[in-house]
């Protein structure tokens, strides 16, 4: 199937229109007309080569929503016209303990990311959602519930599941004291999801500038990490802290905020860490943990949860040819929330 996307051809290059082929449908494949694709910080890092050499050209994008246009003969759960989604991975071994446990993101044999990785069967490099079409095996296709607005759902596929999974893993519920560091794409979803689970949510930010926004998302308040007195007063007051800051920073500042048995979970890629101070960990049995997206079943769960609670990411819609500008703003960190590409702005010829 001929399609078009926007690809980077080298680490320093801007994204440009790129004609390429999607594979012929295999027996269990679903072909999707992409309607919207979210723009994730990892898209930027990947095309810039920040996380290592890339198999250019790379078409990024792993917050994909659209409509089924064709199905392979053995597809059981989807039909033409269904509203569907694809997230950060498109395959895994399906045989190991992690895959059997619905944690394909931790597949022992390595899951296949949605873009920039060899397909398990053909070795062809996967290409992501900044394009008109995608072909994905049925097991990695998600369903968009009827009551979710397609144009506002894309960021649930990465920003949503990345924060939902640790909230579930650490059993967040009524009254759990949750801190969310950073109020960007991931952070504001963490606040909305945790608040809908009944948690008492506090945003932890460098200044109080985003206080109104934090409260509008469902937080009870905002703790400024530069306010030493406030930070001291907040010691031992959190059960779980979700750290969404996508750049290098010192975790030692935040660990004392955890109560006994509290956990700080890193969900961003922050590179090498400052040396952790052991005393606050030992005195309080506190933990620093990490978490990567979520499995396919859990990704369906967060889509259903967002439908049930009518939770939407804050989206700013752009046209496909505005992507290079959007990347620049994203690199500066001056985008509140999530950019979403309207794929109707990209024509096939
Ligand atoms: Zn992402
Ligand atoms: Zn596996």
Automatic annotation (TrEMBL):
Keyword Chaperone appears in the UniProt entry: no
Pfam hit, one: ADH_N
Domain Enoyl reductase (ER) positions: 8-341
Keywords attached to this entry: Metal-binding, Oxidoreductase, Zinc
Cofactor: Zn(2+)
Gene Ontology molecular functions: alcohol dehydrogenase (NADP+) activity; zinc ion binding
Protein name: Alcohol dehydrogenase GroES domain protein
